[in-house]
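Usage

Read records sequentially. Each one opens with the input sequence:
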Amino acid sequence: MKGAVRLLERTIKKRTADGSLVGYDYWYARWREDDPATGKRKVAEKCVGRKESLSRRAALVEMQRLLEAGEIGGARRGAVGAGATVTLGQLNKRFVEMKQAQKVSPGTLQAYDYAIRLLEEFFKQSREVATIGREQAWDFVKAMQKGKLDKCYGGEWKTYKMGDVTIAKHLRHVRAIFEYAVDPDDGEPMIAANPFRKVRVKAAKAKVWRQVTEAEVRRLLEVAPGGWRMLIALCYYAGLRRSDALRLRWKQVSLDAKVIRFTAKKTERHESKREQAVPVSPSLEAILRAEKVLLEGHGEYDPEREVVLQRTAKGEARSRDPKFVRVGNIGRRFRTFCTAAKVHEYVDPCHTLRKSILTEWSTRLSAKTLQHLAGHSSVATTMEHYQLPAHVRPEDLEPVVKAERVVTEVVTAGSP
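and closes with the structure output:
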């Protein structure tokens, strides 16, 4: 089996007769091969031609000719003998095992599993990876566009036409799988080039972010029922991520100490994970107390219960109750709330609410304090995503110091 060969651009400077240096652009093929002298791997290169005489397409054709002639690529060591093949099922299994060894998050594994299921549905597990080329890769994209492949919708696999955004997401994962086949960390390459590298759908329109005001949030809270109302309040008044708001439990909320203590889902698998503490504002406190009193009145309060009412298992009677949040329907349901509240519709509702309040806090708090409230691992992340005021007047410092003192007391205080 030949090694993974890549086409690169290189500028080589040569000295002319008058002593000056002139740069010439070349196409070079690069690959890895075994060094017979040392027994170790080394990088090998070969010039394909001058850029001024060869286009990129022509250079790729010439590189393919050299590869087939055995002039580049080098023989690979290992147990892969002549004629040995790797099937799609074997590639996918090795890729998943590699990702599991890297301890990636369950959500990431689920996304890769989704892409693998689509691949195996179209190409079949027994398909040899080496027989999948650029043309077959485009056929895979067309199958998704025409609705010939199953799509997971509401927890069920059904046949739907996929949009460009969904297809682009799956292609990112598919490219990663085949890139692993080109240059695996735990073995020999299975293919020479990634057939999905240049396969892309048209770019989706960039999302325009718009800060949501507190007046708009109040109108949304008036029309949102039950769990939806609580989800909006936690994302805005506490600045929680959607994942943290949905799994927050009552035992993590102390209304007497006015603090919410939790470990962010996004960072819980990190070795340096730490508990995050967020103050409970008066507006959020009123909503939390009202919900707690309502649950106690119905005898349904439980410290282990989730604060945001969510849809129960499929088939139960209350699963269709509008006050229960259905995770897979948040975006569509929010549009109905925006219409009823006469609020301008915005994308990615939970993240927009969180970003809106953090942007508001950034005008009154220091970057270090905002970093803790946002749950960022470093202050650099906070500075990158939130514009802090460049100039602060002396009279503005007093409320900032008071706010930081409150946050410090909350963070350092013991759990209630």
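Summary fields computed downstream for this record:
- The first strand starts at residue 6 and ends at 15.
- Residues 283 and 328 are 28 Å apart (CA to CA).
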